[in-house]
Amino acid sequence: MSMGRTSLAVSLVTFFEKICAFVLVLMASRLMGDERVGEFFYYFSLACMVIPLVDMGFGKLFLQAWWKDDRPQEKLFARLMVLKVFLGVAAWGLLVGIDQVVRWGEGHPLAVSGAFLAVFLERLSDLLLSPARAKHDFRGDLLVPVVSRVLNLALLFVCVNWFTSGYQLAWLYVVANGAGALISLYALRYCRPDFRGSWTFREGGRLLKEGLPFSLTALFVMISFYVDSVMLGHFSFAEVGHYNAAYRIILVMVVLSGGVCRTLFPRILQLRGEGRVEEAGWFVNGSLQVFVLLFGALMVGSIYTGPSLLPMLFGSSFVSSGQVFVVLAPLILLASLTNLLGHTLEAMELQKQVVKINACSACFNVAANLVLIPRWGMYGAAVTTLLTETLTLLQIGLLLRKHRIWPDLYQGIPQGLLFICITALALFPFRALTAPVALVVNGGILFLLLLAYFPWWPDVAKSTLRKLISARGAA
């Protein structure tokens, strides 16, 4: 399979995995109720928040060493695995302590253990697949997510009637991700870890130091994503459930921009490497205009449809989730733009600035949540998430402007925003429609408006859209 087809296949599997995860949450919410599914989300968010301290970018370090020496790295692989287990035990102890503090003595070590083990096994599977990736064998990347999530769904239907607490859902993830880790063992045929011989603390410290930049970047992002659910868990598991019901739908839609950005990233790198910097800027500007139009339209449709869609999907007890969804809907546009410009910064080798931006946003997120959540609960968390993403986007935009890489980077954006305002006014008379009628009517109107406006799209936007479509097709 060619690299282009492999990239497309991995992207589709990633999207399938997100859809399966969303379906699992949807079914769990209807079968278990808001309180118990909120309990699961609390412990899951707690585990995800610190998992970068365990991950440490070890997979990337292994691949860098392999490609540098052009040979398997058996001893390095073994040491990375030992370090991962050691860091995992330390992170588990840290989580047990955090849970006791957040829940004020009502912590649940067994629940923490299940959630952490589920996430840890997923990341261990990722490390185990590294030798296969070094040999350009991506079968594990295609098979493991599908098997894990399908097994998850099957186990939910079989075991849900036995559940007495929401955290037990995490143990289904342990079984499913454990199966994924077992499948990943096939990659060891390319590089069997060599645990023989001794190694010093200095060598372990060196590996941790090399992996720290990867860990910090991911840590700041994870804090911004999950700290609100952890803080909400101090007050009410039900609010955690309502908040995440809305947030997960937003994340599924944002994933669409990630697939496009994976297509753009190598193209920007190629143009920059060939010295065609102005053409790269033209390509990014066209992508920005396309993102504003498409994801902006999706945002408007979500605002009008969300209040009736969420209760229809998750059940009548999730009415407040529809209101939270409306607050979070602008995240569809903001996160897609942040994703695109963030990839642009990395393509321009400005990774250190990306770490600083993520650190600033994470600090703001924690501080704002501490102020807003005690007073407004999940609505305060939603506003904080929106403000954090806005702050991140502004920082990235100002950095690109400061470096004056492309003076006309934001050309055409005001016209796109004006079109979004027009679509919002066009859908206003249909705001009282309920799902699923609202989905059909609003979706049809948005499609017709985009189609009618297409002849007036800026040439750079139309050309970029054609290239994106052809790039996906060529892949």
What does this structure look like?
This protein has 475 residues and is mostly helical. It folds into two domains: 1-197, no CATH class; 235-475, no CATH class. 83% of the residues lie in helices and 0% in strands. Helix 1 packs antiparallel against helix 11, helix 2 (34-50) crosses helix 6 (109-128) and helix 11 crosses helix 15. The termini are close together. Mean pLDDT is 82; it is low at 471-475.
Provide a compact summary of the structure:
The protein has 475 residues and is mostly helical. The chain has 18 helices and no strands. It has two domains: 1-197, no CATH class; 235-475, no CATH class.
Label the structural class: mainly alpha
User: Total helix count?
Assistant: 18
Q: Would you tell me the overall average pLDDT? A: 82
Whole-number radius of gyration?
23 Å
Give the tally of structural domains: 2
Shape verdict: globular
How many beta-strand elements?
0
Low-confidence stretches: 471-475
N- to C-terminal distance: 10 Å
Order of helices and strands: HHHHHHHHHHHHHHHHHH
> What composes the largest sheet?
none
Which band does the percent of strand residues land in? under 5%
- Helical residue percent band: over 70%
